[in-house]
Design a protein that fits this description.
This protein is α+β, with helices and mostly antiparallel strands and 196 residues long. It has 2 domains: 1-27; 31-193, Lipocalin. It has helices spanning 2-24, 34-40; strands spanning 43-51, 60-72, 76-83, 93-101, 106-113, 116-124, 133-145, 148-159, 166-175, 184-193.
Length: 196
Amino acid sequence: MFAITTRFRSAAVLVAAALSLIGAAPLGSTSGSAQPLLTQMLGTWTVVQRMWPGPAAVAIALPSAVAKRRLIGNAFLQEEMTQASGLVGTSFTRVAYLNYNPISRTWEYVSLDTRAPQVMNERGIASNATDGLNLNGGRFVAAQWGPHKNVAFRYRLVVGPVRSDRQVVSLFLTPLSFAPTKEFRAFEYVYTRAPK
């Protein structure tokens, strides 16, 4: 009984310490330039998408899209991107979340895309987020990329700054299962804010 009580007290102390940290830096709070970047990204945007099937490959234009961005609880930017209306082709939905975590002092980005059903997760530190974010991801396997099948990549996301109602987001891949193992730009999303 003594051991259980001691463990319970130790767990309670840990929980209290964690709650005091959260109380010191509420989850909805931001520091420095975290909040301005999120608010600059709000609204409805038209998106021009391009894909590169490999290093030194020619870019392939993808169907235009529309992205709707909104704040959730003044802490998370939610983006829902869909194919622009009136276009013929395979429709898709891409949902992404961006936030600044004041406890770990990192930016966190998560995206899900029905065109490639796997969760992408990137994190990074930015001293001045209004100049853009460089977010490092982990690894993922693509069923096919160019002539290669079941290829592994390491990925990195660059969220550019918002300037004159325009923003560029780029996904870079580094092949891990075929040569050359040099990073290349794989996707580019050019956002233009739709007029109100």
